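Could you join me in thinking about how sequence relates to backbone shape in a protein? We need material for that, and I hope you will provide a protein of your own picking. Label the sequence line and the structure token line clearly, so we can match residues to local backbone shapes. Would you write everything just below, so we can both look at the same thing?
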Amino acid sequence: MTQHIGIVACSAEGAALCYRTICVEGEQLMGRHAHPEVSLHTFSLDDYMQPIYRNDWQAVGELMLASAHKLAKSGADFLICPDNTIHQALHYVMPSSPLPWLHIAEVVAAQAVERGYKRLALTGTRWLVDSNVYPEKLDARGVSYLRPTVAERDGINRIIMDELVCSVFKPEAVAYFQRVIARLKDEGCDAVVLGCTEIPLIMNDGNSPLPTLDSTRLLARAALQRAVRG
């Protein structure tokens, strides 16, 4: 029996990509048209953004925990969250969580080590890039990293929050990411973390100046492996 995956969602596009990846790639492990049982719960994105704007991560954690309990009642065996930013609140969730979680940054860090990357460029919302979500997991594995400049973080954040989460995908956004990633490549980075689950909707190995670590799909694949193989 495969395990039942619970998705604690936040923004729609990232959660949808994670869900699609689980369902489409499930057949590689389970056979034609097969994938594990999946349940998804989300509150309104605005419910999350209001406490994020006032830097109230405990309130963010309370929303995540409420989703966790709903998913536990639906029969989920473990949880994933396809949203890098709100992982900042996970430490508020874990002591009372009814189920175990896969941590998105741990999954990405493990993949970076497996692929032999030494210095990663971090991209994502300004809340994520300013945080310790990725540095903590990368430091534990001996992988170094660089953050974009403050101005670049603001530019990326605007694209994510005003465009990508609203299903708006512009060539100008791709060009902006390419410039930022190219500069970080010049600073010595050998791969880039697509650390917002919507970034893979516009950036990939085909158009990025650096190899990409697609946090959304990597998390989905780790969940598939856990569900099928334990």
Q: What stands out?
A: The chain is about 50% helix and 10% strand.
